[in-house]
Amino acid sequence: MKIRLFEKRDAETVARLFHETVHEINSRDYSSKQVKAWAPDDLHFRDWETRCSSRFTYVADDEGVIAGFGELEPDGHIDCFYSHKDYQRCGVGSQIYQAIEAKAIALGLKRLTVEASITAKPFFQRMGFAIVNEQEVICRGERFINYVMEKWL
User: How many Å apart are CA 39 and CA 99, to the nearest integer?
Assistant: First the structure.
């Protein structure tokens, strides 16, 4: 498994990974309506190319298979962070997170933040994040519970 920076050619694979993971993994903690609002079927790959290229996006590349990805914004916010449904609990997330934290330290950041889903909260707690607060957010008309979390570096 190699952790590397996102390349434009990864956009479609990353978008599909996001969609499939939300629909198959996050659906354990969120309703069908919430999942459809979170990851609609009409994904635009160009949007993902632009999005992932505009931040530090790390992908886990398992001999050509994208096993996961995570995004670090320059201010220390971790945005999307997903492991492929077939790579859950295999250490993929930990490896991506280690790359993100190393980059944050190299940038001189003092703190990382994330809005973790119910599903992702335990992972981020294992990585040393603390819950700042639980919040309710609205996405495409659906209400979601997630957790503002932080880690001081």
Answer: 25
pLDDT digits (tens, 9 = 90+) for 2-11: 999 999 999 9
CA dihedral 15, 18, 22, 25 (to 10 degrees): 140
Query: CB under 8 Å to 153, separation ≥6 — which residues?
Result: 101, 104, 105, 109, 110, 111, 112
CB 82 within 8 A of CB 38: no
Least Cα distance to 76 among 105, 115, 112, 114 occurs for 112
**pLDDT, tens digit, for every residue of 77-106?**
999 999 999 999 899 999 999 999 999 999
| CA dihedral sign, ordered 128, 110, 116, 120 | negative
Measured distance CA(29)–CA(51) in Å, rounded: 26
Residues 6+ apart with CB under 8 A from 51: 71
Whole-model pTM: value is 0.93
Comparing CA positions, the residue from 148, 149, 67, 56 lying closest to residue 102 is 56
